[in-house]
Amino acid sequence: MNRTFYIIEGSGLAYSLAKKLLLLGNKVFYVSNKKSNLEILDGLKVNFPSLELINQDPTDINWIENLDLDRKVEAMIIISEDDAFNFVVSWLLKQFFEEIKIIALVNSPEDEIVFQSIKVETIVPIKWMEKLIESSLIYEDVTEFFNPYVDKLSVLEIPIDPGDKADSKKLKEVKLPQNAIIGVLIRKNGEIMVPNGETSILLGDRLIVLALKDKVDEVVNALK
Fold first, then answer.
1. 3 state DSSP class of 191
2. Are 12 and 84 in contact (CB under 8 A)?
3. Are the CB atoms for 201 and 166 separated by under 8 Å?
4. Which of 20, 127, 139, 185 is the most buried (most CB within 10 A)?
């Protein structure tokens, strides 16, 4: 089942996140009142019709109050470079949509406690950096964190939905591009297997695919 995400503000980060979510077959709404941000995301619409751009001030309480969220919304993600803005939008959303997951980017670690006080999930980039540095000091083998191939290799999780090309096909019948391989198959019931050519791909399966970054679009096109 496709999931729905709202991404609020952000520019380059929003583009990368939206593209990742769209590649996985999700519906994405991007909200911003900045023309430059909307133009950056607009380039994705050619390949991803499930992306919708909303030219709107995210702090407009009337707009928030009238949001139609009857559809399945997995999360609302606020990722501007301004912590005060991210907090205001998070707080407003919490007033009307208590049950929906809200995730906010926290650019300054000292601001995180404010977001936690209203029970908003946080993303703090500097904390990730601290963990990487700590690991490099404690362990000799840090390849998990400093993978020399990370700039070339993508690991994709692709769900099989109704109407997808791969549905009900054997693995050997799927025409993946060179330098791409289905490494793991996760059944709807949670069973995990390493597939072979005779393995049937079923509706509801999730495929873990390893591919070169420049082959991602071809992989999605072969499966979806």
1. coil
2. no
3. yes
4. 185
Name the one residue in this structure whose structure tokens are 């996985």.
24
In whole angstroms, give the CA distance from residue 105 to residue 131. 17
Given a contact cutoff of 8 angstroms between Cβ atoms, the answer to whether 159 and 202 are in contact is no
Select from 191, 184, 190, 187 the least CA-distant residue to 210: 184
**Closest to 77 (Cα-Cα) out of 112, 29, 116:** 29
- pTM for the model: 0.58
* 111-149 residue pLDDT tens: 889 998 988 988 877 665 555 555 444 434 444 444 555
Phi, psi dihedrals of residue 38, rounded to the nearest 5° = -65, -35
Alpha-carbon gap, residue 81 to 107, rounded angstroms: 7
Evaluate whether 106 touches 124 at the Cβ level (below 8 Å).
yes
